[in-house]
């Protein structure tokens, strides 16, 4: 019987080395391998891969943006509390903001978000010229936004629509030039021994702090404060004693209190200094005497009659007036317009500026709104400037070729920051400018 001779190829054992490959040209690495090798050069030593580094960087940026949300979230809570407690104040004060300029700034930031998104896309695709152009346009939009804010802020400071007690002080005019002999006489004259307040400044402070309880002319408000016109208490005290009394206030359980309502220290405005209180006292001393009350009206003090009997001078029960109520906001002006003298007579046209210091409809503590306005918009402006600086650094790096399809993480992270800054303004614009 014939058997065919079959030759079997030798097989390698599991532990043996593989047979050497046939001699030939070495395989060339693919373009993708070159890109991977180039990307690996940018990976920090504590990351396992470029993807790991990218995700970690993005997570870090979101954590930072979370702190920004917390910061502005606290300011939004402050805004909500103040607006809830002073609704009339915010309605009145927002009329002094320029809705037109605020709307233009909103459009500018929306366009800047678009250009920043296009810059990120251009970096991802490796289009360096387009990347540089989009970054420059974004910086230009940021500069335009800050330029418009400069116009707004300059107008507010010129009209003294500013936070703090400086809101109630009229602009100081420079003193007139005096002759040398007048200056020598003034220098030789002894200083006054007792300081005297400024009744004009005192009236502005009175309208901002004391009017809510004592009326605009010191006539008193039933259930809140007594009539101070011709008050024996005021006439029997010196200026220093009255300043000390207003500084300390009076508690409702004080035996000397007739209203049994707390009189807060410094009239409830802790920003008032002793000099301001002295100005208020000077204004109180200029109040005219109260008009005579008809027979049977009491001891000549209508407020006292209300306190004792619960009735006003005409014998009718007084209408309760909540302490936090504010006058109804006028249909007043809006934005940056010409000055209005605020003189008596017909109402000012809707397109002219009404000086808040002479506006009879101005609610108390009007400076609070402008404090919130400058705090929120100013902090937002700081973030806009910081974003412009970061984008400027990216622009310089893009011109040098450091950013492109192989490295765009920094551009994307700054883009996230810029979008959040724009988003915050989207909330600020209606909350401050569109109050009706």
Keywords for this entry:
52% helix, Cytochrome Bc1 Complex, Chain D, domain 2, 0% strand, mainly alpha, 436 residues, 14 helices, Four Helix Bundle (Hemerythrin (Met), subunit A), elongated, disordered N terminus
Task: Summarize the helices and strands and which ones pair or pack.
Elements: H1 31-40, H2 50-85, H3 87-93, H4 99-125, H5 128-158, H6 180-188, H7 199-209, H8 211-214, H9 232-235, H10 239-248, H11 274-284, H12 302-309, H13 367-399, H14 409-433
Helix pairs in contact: 2-3, 2-13, 2-14, 4-5, 4-14, 5-13, 7-11, 10-11, 13-14
Notes on the structure:
The longest helix has 36 residues, at 50-85. With 436 residues, this protein is mostly helical. Helix 10 packs across helix 11 (274-284). It has helices at residues 31-40, 50-85, 87-93, 99-125, 128-158, 180-188, 199-209, 211-214, 232-235, 239-248, 274-284, 302-309, 367-399, 409-433. Among the domains are: 66-164 and 361-410 and 420-433, Four Helix Bundle (Hemerythrin (Met), subunit A) (Up-down Bundle); 192-309, Cytochrome c-like domain (Cytochrome Bc1 Complex, Chain D, domain 2).
Q: What is the N-to-C succession of helices and strands?
A: HHHHHHHHHHHHHH
Spatial gap, N to C terminus: 113 Å
Number of strands: 0
Number of helices: 14
Q: Could you name the CATH class of one domain?
A: Mainly Alpha
Radius of gyration (CA) equals: 36 Å
Provide a short characterization of the protein structure:
By secondary structure, the protein is an all-alpha fold.
């Amino acid at each position: 019987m014939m058997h065919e001779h079959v030759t079997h190829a030798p097989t390698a054992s599991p532990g043996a080395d593989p047979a050497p490959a046939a001699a030939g040209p070495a395989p060339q690495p693919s373009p993708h391998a070159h890109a991977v090798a180039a990307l690996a050069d940018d990976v920090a030593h504590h990351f396992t891969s470029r993807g790991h580094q990218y995700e970690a960087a993005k997570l870090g940026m979101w954590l930072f943006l979370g702190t920004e949300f917390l910061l502005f979230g606290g300011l939004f809570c402050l805004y909500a509390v103040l607006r809830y407690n002073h609704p009339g104040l915010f309605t009145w004060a927002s009329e002094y903001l320029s809705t037109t300029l605020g709307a233009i700034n909103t459009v500018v930031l929306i366009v800047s978000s678009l250009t920043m998104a296009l810059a990120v896309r251009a970096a991802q695709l490796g289009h360096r010229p387009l990347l540089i152009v989009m970054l420059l346009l974004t910086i230009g939009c940021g500069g335009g936004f800050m330029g418009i804010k400069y116009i707004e802020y300059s107008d507010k400071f010129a009209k003294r629509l500013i936070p703090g007690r400086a809101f109630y002080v009229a602009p100081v005019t420079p003193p007139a030039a005096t002759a040398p002999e007048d200056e020598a006489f003034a220098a030789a004259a002894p200083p006054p021994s007792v300081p005297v307040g400024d009744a004009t400044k005192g009236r502005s402070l009175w309208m901002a702090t004391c009017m809510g309880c004592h009326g605009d002319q010191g006539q008193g408000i039933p259930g809140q404060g007594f009539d101070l016109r011709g008050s024996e208490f005021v006439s029997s005290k010196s200026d220093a004693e009255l300043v000390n009394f207003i500084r300390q206030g009076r508690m409702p359980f004080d035996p000397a209190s007739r209203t049994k309502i707390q009189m807060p220290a410094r009239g409830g405005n802790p920003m008032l200094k002793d000099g301001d209180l002295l100005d208020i006292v000077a204004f109180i001393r200029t109040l005219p005497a109260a008009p005579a009350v008809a027979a049977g009206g009491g001891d000549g003090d209508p407020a006292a009659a209300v306190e004792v009997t619960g009735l006003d001078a005409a014998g009718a029960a007084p209408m309760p007036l909540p302490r936090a109520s504010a006058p109804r906001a006028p249909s007043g002006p809006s934005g940056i317009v010409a000055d209005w003298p605020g003189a008596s007579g017909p109402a000012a046209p809707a397109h002219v500026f009404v000086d808040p210091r002479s506006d009879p409809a101005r609610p108390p503590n009007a400076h609070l709104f402008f404090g919130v306005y400058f705090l929120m918009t100013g902090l937002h402006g700081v973030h806009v400037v910081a974003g412009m600086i970061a984008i400027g650094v990216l622009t310089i790096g893009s011109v040098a070729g450091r950013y492109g399809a192989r490295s765009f993480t920094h551009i994307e992270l700054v883009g996230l920051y810029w979008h959040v800054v724009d988003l915050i303004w989207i909330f600020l614009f209606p909350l401050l400018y569109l109050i009706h």
